[in-house]
TrEMBL record:
Location of the G-protein coupled receptors family 1 profile domain: 32-276, 371-614
GO cellular component: membrane
Localisation: Membrane
InterPro entries attached to this UniProt entry: GPCR_Rhodpsn_7TM
Keyword Electron transport: no
Taxonomy of the source species: Eukaryota, Metazoa, Spiralia, Gnathifera, Rotifera
UniProt keyword terms in alphabetical order: Membrane, Transmembrane, Transmembrane helix
Domain of life: Eukaryota
Name the record gives this protein: G-protein coupled receptors family 1 profile domain-containing protein
Entry keyword Disulfide bond: no
Transmembrane segments: 20-41, 53-75, 132-160, 172-201, 222-241, 361-381, 393-413, 445-465, 477-495, 515-539, 569-590, 596-617
Length: 649
């Protein structure tokens, strides 16, 4: 084979070796986690249930992704001459199975949530009574995505990219195919999964035909645990897995953004067995049983009179769990040491000028963090403020927290003297620029959704949050994903240019005046104009009392709606004053310029004031703060009432 002229030695390029090293370390940790999980699964029959077959199918796809990575790593590491035909087949297999397995996970989790919904609504074991349907679902989920990838290759709808020394990749050839792929591989399964999760949550409290209160409580507790497990696991999976599938049609896997998406995906694979074990009581019981057996075995061998040589052998065997933990820390230290030893890295630090501009922002963010923590403590402590009707305000405050977390992470990143590889620094730079604009854009549409819901509540006089839950969920999805999708498109087609001055913040600036105007229209003028429009409509409907003849009800209704309007008006006015300069100046000024720094200061002042304004304008929060104050006064009074005897002073 080595004498044939049509063969070639395949190996990693120098640049790819630098990018793949952290992925290799993550995959080694993921393999250890999955092996421990599979050992628990084989040893204890209590976790071998039919009701968990979708979870195990999902774990198998994780193992296949890890196996694919290690096989391809060895394939490019082993210096052997590969014929051209075999090389092309391996390249197509590498590209197809990566996309196929990730798409497979999406539909497996959809099937899991559908089965749990049927279990909660109809109250029967769908895995035992509908085995034929389960088998058909398996066949459809496993074969249809694979056939679709083959069809796309045969009809030339995807193009194979095979850079020397890099990863093979399949990219759609047009924007239409990119959108179709995203619809069928992401939006349809994700939206359906969220719908079935909400339907399951809605049916938890259904107790038709059950009269015994104990059975009702046990049933609700069991189903509530099922929904909670699905929601937490699905949220973690969605956060870490979404970038890989959202970016696949637009970015090559060998690019900086593609590498970041792959790192997030392999982190998700590493966390999957931990999340399943932590959320399922059966796995927690098996881990507890394993721990008890290890402790009994250790006590038995320590109490028996064994010679010194045998006791040393026993201690070595009893330290297997400790060895695994030390292996984790060794891997982390190995990754950090190798990343620091690479030649293609640099130490990213704040410049003297940037340090002066960022110092006031740091003080404002520390104050904002304290205020937000006090607000969330009140939210956790008092159930009266945990209402469905305040979900948009809480989503807005979560975006505030994300902006604060972003600031502190980037501050530590430029303060910590560590050598960062160029590709990793570029990925962090893109994330820094994109998420600043994305989160600020997100807030404008969240407040628009809040004002629309309040208008519907005032005009039609019904609780939109309980009667239109599906529409609310769809609005959440559109608000969270459409702006992010827009920023990715703008970066992909070079409509924005990345500014990365040494020792300063990264920023994305539109390349032309039409793109700046389009950005302002969609990020500022449309949401602000619509929000003001719905506020004026609410003002018009406040005095509408058609069909109500009792004066007390009319007065109470007017007072309640007027209070809602005042809250929205005051909060929205202060938000526009402090937030508008940042959005209006972003397309025209670099954020570290004098004007840009002033806009950032106003933006972070707005973040600091947000919880204070919400707590001051909402009566429920005022009552919660008053209750906290009363408790503190009573505690202080009781402390002062205790007199210390003179002989102890």
């Amino acid at each position: 084979m080595n004498n044939e002229t049509s063969c070639k030695i395949i190996h990693w390029s120098h640049q790819t070796i630098g990018t793949i090293r952290p992925i290799l370390c993550i995959c080694l940790l993921a393999t250890v986690n999955h092996l421990i999980f599979q050992i628990q699964l084989k040893v204890f029959p209590t976790v071998q249930k039919r009701s968990m077959l979708w979870v195990y199918a999902y774990i198998v796809t994780d193992l296949l992704l890890l196996l694919r990575f290690f096989l391809l790593y060895i394939y490019r590491w082993w210096p052997r001459c590969i014929p051209h035909v075999v090389r092309m087949l391996i390249c197509y297999g590498e590209a197809v199975f990566d996309n196929y397995l990730n798409q497979l996970q999406c539909y497996i989790l959809l099937a899991l949530n559908i089965c749990r919904y049927l279990q909660i609504v109809h109250g029967h074991n769908v895995y035992a009574s509908n085995r034929l349907i389960i088998m058909i679902a398996y066949c459809l989920i496993y074969f249809l995505p694979f056939i679709s990838h083959i069809v796309m290759i045969v009809f030339g709808w995807t193009l194979l990219q095979n850079p020397p020394g890099g990863f093979c990749n399949l990219l759609p050839i047009s924007l239409v195919i990119c959108v179709v792929f995203l619809v069928f591989s992401y939006f349809i399964p994700v939206c359906l999964t969220l719908i079935f999760l909400l339907l399951s949550l809605h049916h938890i409290h259904q107790t038709d035909g059950i009269h015994a209160q104990e059975i009702v409580d046990a049933r609700q507790k069991y189903y509530r645990r099922l929904v909670l497990q699905s929601a937490i696991f699905y949220t973690i999976w969605l956060v870490l897995w979404s970038p890989n599938l959202l970016l696949f049609p637009f970015y090559c896997k060998n690019g900086r953004i593609g590498n970041l998406a792959k790192i997030l995906r392999y982190i998700n694979i590493t966390l999957d067995p931990i999340a399943i074990s932590a959320l399922d009581r059966r796995f927690l019981q098996t881990w507890q049983l394993t721990g008890n057996q290890c402790r009994r075995w250790l006590r038995r061998h320590q109490s028996s009179p064994v010679p010194v040589i045998l006791s040393t052998h026993t201690i070595e065997h009893s330290l297997t769990i400790v060895d695994i933990v030390s292996h984790y820390f060794f891997m982390i230290e190995y990754c950090t040491r190798n990343m620091n030893k690479t030649n293609d890295c640099e130490v990213v630090r704040w410049s003297t000028q940037a340090m002066k501009t960022v110092q006031p922002l740091l003080y404002i963010c520390i104050l904002a963090t304290i205020i937000h923590l006090l607000f969330w403590i009140q939210l956790i402590a008092y159930p009266t403020v945990r209402q469905w009707s305040m979900q948009w305000l809480y989503a807005y405050l979560v975006s505030d927290l994300l902006l604060l977390i972003r600031f502190f992470l980037l501050y530590v990143y430029r303060w910590w003297p560590i050598c960062v590889p160029y590709f990793l620094h570029s990925m962090i730079c893109y994330c820094e620029a994109i998420f600043d604009n994305y989160l600020n854009l997100l807030q404008s549409y969240i407040l628009l959704a809040l004002n629309i819901c309040r208008y519907l509540q005032i005009a039609h006089n019904y609780n939109v949050y309980s009667t239109n839950r599906c529409s609310i969920v769809m609005a959440h999805l559109l608000i969270y994903f459409c702006p992010l999708f827009g920023h990715i498109i703008a970066a992909k087609y070079k409509w924005t240019v990345l500014q990365n001055p040494p020792g300063d913040a990264c920023d994305l600036i539109p390349v032309s005046l039409p793109i700046r105007i389009i950005f302002l229209v969609f990020s500022y003028f449309i949401p602000v104009a619509l929000a003001l429009f719905f506020l004026f409509l609410c003002l018009n409907y406040v005095r509408n009392t058609d069909g109500i003849r009792t004066q007390e009800i009319v007065d109470a209704r007017l007072k309640y709606h007027r209070q809602i309007l005042i809250q929205s008006g005051v909060f929205y006015s202060l938000w526009i004053v402090f937030w508008s300069p940042h959005i209006l100046l972003f397309p025209f000024f670099y954020k570290s310029s004098t004007v840009g720094v002033m806009a950032q200061i106003l933006n972070y002042i707005s973040i600091t004031l947000d919880p204070i304004i919400i707590a001051a304008l909402d009566r429920r929060f005022l009552q919660a703060w008053q209750s906290t104050g009363d408790r503190l006064k009573r505690s202080f009074s009781q402390y002062q009432a205790v007199r210390i005897p003179n002989d102890q002073r």
